[in-house]
Write a structure and sequence with these properties.
Blueprint lengths: L1 H33 L3 H29 L2 E3 L6 H14 L5 E5 L6 E5 L5 E6 H6 L2 H16 L2 H27 L12 H27 L4 H14 L2 H13 L30 H6 L6 H9 L2
Helix pairs in contact: 1-2, 1-6, 1-7, 2-6, 3-5, 5-8, 5-9, 6-7, 9-11
Length: 301
């Protein structure tokens, strides 16, 4: 467990460093393509540094805001508060902030930078469709992410990946509509042309590289959180029954996006043709292991 926590902290540092390097490369690509000189590189460095700081301190607030999460009223959602308090006592954790998302699809996620600054958000669909032991299993899974420091690297990825995609998309669209000056205009010969092509390729590939960084938020962490959650409740059938309900429910979480998809206990995006037109794209960038594998692993405990 301690090795997993140390690994997640190292991964957070590597993710931030990789993000800064990628933003600088995107800045260089913009310079090669649009010839803005060192100004573009300096802007990229300032932007990357600012986003890195912002992602560490405010990424949880951004993830909650993107998901339209609202604080869970202690009276209206007394069952939720009571279950989390009991699990926190059993797990030796401070009680996280609790949020509710008005969405009929059953799902949940945890966010924050450490156990003292953590938050758990659940959908109204989850509260309505899960019985007590199933809801306890889901909450224990999310608290395991908090205890294992999964939430730090996962939440940082939301902001960093989104920023890279935004900058690269801006560059490609600006180029598409005729912005910038071409290297050939300045008569720089084959070297200038090669740098120009490298810049275009980097701008086009940056979103894909960013998604690969998102995959660095290992899919294995979900299986580990399942096992840790069961250790917290000491009742595997609770989480197994919850995962079976999540598997059978075809409702898509409307409050989720590809940027936040990896945070949720189960992929919140459409994965079949009946669920949405972009299901093929969602399957291509799947952030969760097959739910059947997770259920099978828990049944072996």
């Amino acid at each position: 467990m301690y090795e997993q926590i140390s690994s997640n902290k190292r991964r957070s540092v590597l993710l931030i460093a990789g993000f800064v390097v990628l933003v600088v490369l995107v800045g260089l690509a913009l310079n090669w393509v649009f010839r803005y000189g060192y100004v573009g590189l300096i802007v990229a460095l300032v932007f990357a540094s600012g986003m890195a700081v912002l992602s560490y301190w405010k990424s949880d607030a951004i993830a909650l805001s993107m998901s339209r999460a609202k604080p869970a009223d202690p009276v209206q959602y007394a069952r939720l508060h009571n279950l989390v308090e009991g699990l926190c006592i059993a797990g030796g954790l401070p009680k996280p902030r609790l949020y509710v998302i008005d969405d009929p699809a059953p799902n949940a996620f945890a966010t924050g930078r450490n156990p003292k600054h953590a938050a758990i958000a659940v959908t109204t669909g989850l509260l309505e469709k899960m019985n007590r032991v199933e809801l306890e299993g889901v909450l224990a899974h999310e608290l395991s992410h908090v205890k294992n420091y999964d939430i730090l690297v996962s939440t940082i990825a939301v902001v960093l990946v989104g920023a890279i995609v935004l900058v690269a998309d801006f560059g490609v669209r600006f180029l598409w509509f005729g912005g910038g000056r071409r290297s050939g205009d300045r008569g720089e010969g084959p070297v200038g042309a090669i740098l120009f092509l490298i810049g275009i390729a980097l701008l086009a590939l940056a979103p894909i590289i960013a998604k690969v960084m998102q995959f660095a938020v290992s899919r294995r962490r979900e299986a580990l959180a399942d096992v840790s959650g069961v250790a917290m409740t000491r009742y595997p059938p609770g989480l197994i029954a919850a995962l079976e309900k999540l598997r059978d429910d075809q409702t898509v979480v409307h409050s989720a996006s590809r940027a936040t998809a990896h945070l949720w206990i189960e992929s919140p995006l459409a994965r079949t043709k009946d669920e949405g037109r972009l299901s093929w794209l969602n399957r291509l960038f799947e952030t969760h292991p097959p739910i059947e594998e997770r259920i099978a692993a828990l049944r072996e405990l």
